[in-house]
Amino acid sequence: MQARLRDVPHKPGIYVMRDRLKRVIYVGKARDLRKRLSHYFTPSRQTRADPKTRALIDSIWEFEWHIVRSEAEAVLFEGRLIKEFRPKYNVSFRDDKRFLLVRVNLNDPWPKFQLTRLRKDDGARYFGPFAHSGALRTTLGAIRKKFGIRSCRPPVPGERDYRHCLDHVIKNCSAPCIGRIVQSDYLRRVEEACEFLEGASRQMIEQVEAEMKSAAEKLDFEKAAQLRNLLDDLKRTTKPMTRFTRKALPTSIDPQEDLRALADALQLGQAPRIMECFDISNISSTHIVASMVRFKDGVPDRASYRRYRIKGTPTQDDFASMAEVVRRRYSRVLREAQQDKTPLVKRDDGTVDYSPEFSQESPAQSLLQTAMLDNQPSGLPDLIIVDGGKGQLSSACRELQRLGLYQQPIIGLAKEFEEIYRPGRPLPLHLPEDSGALKLLQRIRDEAHRFANSFHSLLLKKRISESLLDEIPGVSASRKKALLEAFGSVERIRKSSVEEISSVSGIGPRLGEQISQYLSRP
């Protein structure tokens, strides 16, 4: 890290921290990139920092930086990166709030400038985004005053609006509502204001500078300070900036290119447009769950995600759990396909017979043949990925073979060394760390892991909220509530007599005795 820091310039910009799996974990901005990045790797920082910062420093595997021209550009760039990557150690910019834009619709009879946060395809002109909302609001007020642009709400101002507005009195508006200006002159002023927002602001800035110097010479320091602040806001708002788009972001993610690279690496006939990845999550034998995530054209297809509670494996057994979830997933795919279309036979005359009595094909063969003749997707993925090594892969392959899916492409991805295991190949495949194919596999594997862990955590939270009372037959939710309100806890109910339990509303002697016996068991 220290050797890499020597290459970092003393310039403003943003920096991106990544972990060993190349995931973005933090995005920040700095006026001096070298000073800021050096600050992370000093020995005192690692010992005196708060726990969150120490965890961040321990997770940093590499970093990159990108130079910008101003602090405002850094703010915009940082916000875009955080919204795209959602790093785990960032707090700001993770919501859906956007930077301010200025909107004006020149097709309106009397256009006006409005602030908005969403750019729409409505024929209007948009300026921005702007990093400093305060400076933008001040600048917009100055523009309205200089060019006489109206700020009232009605689409077409009239006499009625004139009675409730004082902008024409304080010279902030050209008052089109009472006919003080013709439409052609008003539209010309709007065009000039648009040119100002686009950067043609030198004349107005020079005018404000001259007024500021004049006020200072007259010892009117209060007015000079106000003009100085206005000048700063004008320069901030109208300063040329790079407009960052998704293509300008420092990301190596290109789904189509990664898919092609993966097809070449695995020697597939075509790019795997549909991929499904499985992961198992468990702690001991408590709530063993599995997840299946689906990527379409290299990006998540969240509507097709599935989660499973493992039923046939009472103990911790990743191999058996993987076999169960693969069997359940693809036996259902075949069953649903059979319901949609019964087995088919193609006759000599080119017609297709869907009568099952003429077919000797397995459900899997029937499904693939139907898809081939109808030129439609089979419902099966182009590639199956299991999280794990040889054991998980072998378990999944056995279940696919039992279902008749002998030609289904499948691989296993072992996390520790990012080894790719393939059926019939004794040695794993190692791809370069910067390979787009490996990064795509890591993204889908990590997404499956996240989805499985979130389901497991949800079940654990539900389990914690449950009570022993839920396991007693006859104790409904209302009776459970009445017992806890009367005794305060399950432990107090256990120490109480049958008569005390039976005296609770809705319990009775018979259920009270049953509760007492159940809770007294060792």
Question: What's a quick, concise take on this entry?
Answer:
The protein has 522 residues and is an alpha+beta fold. It folds into 4 domains: 2-85, GIY-YIG endonuclease; 100-238, no CATH class; 255-462, Nucleotidyltransferase, domain 5; 468-519, 5' to 3' exonuclease, C-terminal subdomain (DNA polymerase, domain 1), CATH 1.10.150.20.
Strand content: 5-15%
Helix content: 40-55%
Looking at the overall shape, the CATH architecture of the largest domain is: 2-Layer Sandwich
Q: CATH H-level name of the largest domain... which superfamily?
A: UvrC, RNAse H endonuclease domain
Number of helices: 19
- End-to-end gap: 58 Å
Oligomeric assembly: single chain
Mean pLDDT: 77
Which CATH class of the largest domain? Alpha Beta
Q: Give the number of domains.
A: 4
Please give the number of β-strands: 15
> Sheet with the most strands?
7 strands, mixed
Form type: extended
The CATH topology name of the largest domain reads Nucleotidyltransferase, domain 5
Poorly predicted segments = 245-252, 342-347, 351-360, 371-377
Helix/strand structural class = alpha+beta
The gyration radius over C-alpha positions equals 34 Å
